[in-house]
Amino acid sequence: MDQNYYLTGMINGMDYKIARLINMQAVPPVLMIDRSGKTLSKKPPLKLTLKEIQEVETEMVREISRICKEHKIPYFLHCGSALGAVRHHGPIPWDSDVDVIVPYHRCRDFCDAMRRNLPEKFCLYFHDTDPHYVALFPRIGLAGYSSKIMHVDVFRLIGISSIKWKQNLFTGLTSLLKKMSYFKKVKTDSSFSKFRFFYYVMIKIMLIPVSCKWIVILFDRLCRMYPYEESIYVTNPSGHYGRKNIQPREVYGKGTETMYEGFRVVIPEQYDKYLKHYYGDYLKLPLDKERNTNRMFDILPV
Asked: What is the pTM of this model?
């Protein structure tokens, strides 16, 4: 079978640009079976280039922007995605995911609106409907496929104390809960080294008395501790930057629009200050060796 045959054609009601990437009706179902004989899926994985992944993710961003505008839900492109919008007027050419961030008090509205209005080809994943979902924040992905690689992360923008030691304690607690949630739900497999496998198993054993539900409840309580609209400072409790995620709420403001692959998206109002805080001289491009755009990815069915 031609490796890329199922990436061509049309699906009724879908945009051709996306349909040519995710059309699964172009070939008969392929039965995938593991070594033990267990049936894994009737769909083959998608083998996509970085550019093709970005095309699908850009369509997700277009839908998010449309739905948020229709329902008056505030959101901002976040971190590298805001940088891409300002510097490239689209995704960073060598970046494989997209981040948006939504004020905490509107996150439920955001999730509800996405589930009601996203095209059927896309899906919002979160632990409220999927007990095996690992992250403590929602994610939008391609329906029927793993969202591990191709996705839009939906982070929550929450209030935080103005006192430095309280900020440090809060950041440490949210980071600990994030790691606990990951280790509770992540699955070990044959790709792990012996040391990594042993390390993960030992942590999982230590976390047996702690329920996933308890982690989620405590994390949400922390997110509600400092009301967003009353806070001078805000942060992303699920981000990878730790204390660097803390910025004055006025930096986000009400947001400002900019162009992103031909449509309008919202970025923080004081985007210059925001991006300099994260990246310094953000208009300077990284070295050529750090700009790998020739990668291929396997998007697995679920």
From this structure: 0.85
